[in-house]
Amino acid sequence: MASLTCYPTASGDDCEVYKQGATYPPSGSATVVTEQIQVGVSKGWETDHFATHVGLVRFDTSPLPDGAIITAATLRLCSSGGASDADGRVLNVDWYDPNNWPIDAADYSDAVSAGAGSLDVTSWPSYGNWAEIVLSGLSNISKTGYTGLRLGVSGGQPAGSNGLEFFTYDYGSLIPQLVVTYAPGGYQHKVLGCLPATIAKIMGVPTANVGKFCGV
Q: Cα(78)–Cα(5) distance, rounded to whole angstroms?
C-alpha cells in the first residue's frame, strides 16, 4: 500500500458560502468569502437572525497513479477555534463537483448530506489540533484532476449556535489535507486485434499463448 497527501492548490480552493436572515431557512443570494485564513461551517440562531455557513475545499489529486486502486481516504482539518453545539448537530461532508470552482453563490446549500462522511460537532478538537474524517464513496476521488468536498452542519431550524472553524490554504502547514491510501495496481496494455502466429513465432511467444494477446 502507498499513501498520498493532497492539498488545496490555490487561495480560493477552500472558502465559505453563507446566508443569513430573520427567517429560516435564510433567503436571498448567498455571500461568498475567500482570501481568509479560516473557513467557518455553521448553522445557528445568532441573537437576531439565522445564519448557515457552508465550507468548500478542493484538492489536487492528479498525482495518484492512473492504475491506483484507492482503498481508503481521510479528510484532515486543523481547528482554528472551539466548536459550538447547542442543538446536538453533526458536521456533514459530501463530494462536490470540482468543476464548479471558482466558488460562487450557487454553491450554497442549507442541507449538505453526509455522502462522504460525518463527524459529531462535539468531537471537534481544540485550537491547533487535527480532526480526521474517514471518507466513503472513494470512486469520487479523481486520479487525473481535482477532487471537491462540501461541508455543512446537519439538521433543520436551529435554536442556538452550532458550528466550527478550520484553517485554510493561506495558513502554512495547517491547511486542509486529503490523505489517500492506495494499491499501485497493475498496468494494462490493450493490443488491437490478435497477434498473428507468424509474429508470435518471431517473438518467441508459444502458439498456445497467442490468444492472450487479444484485447489484453
A: 15
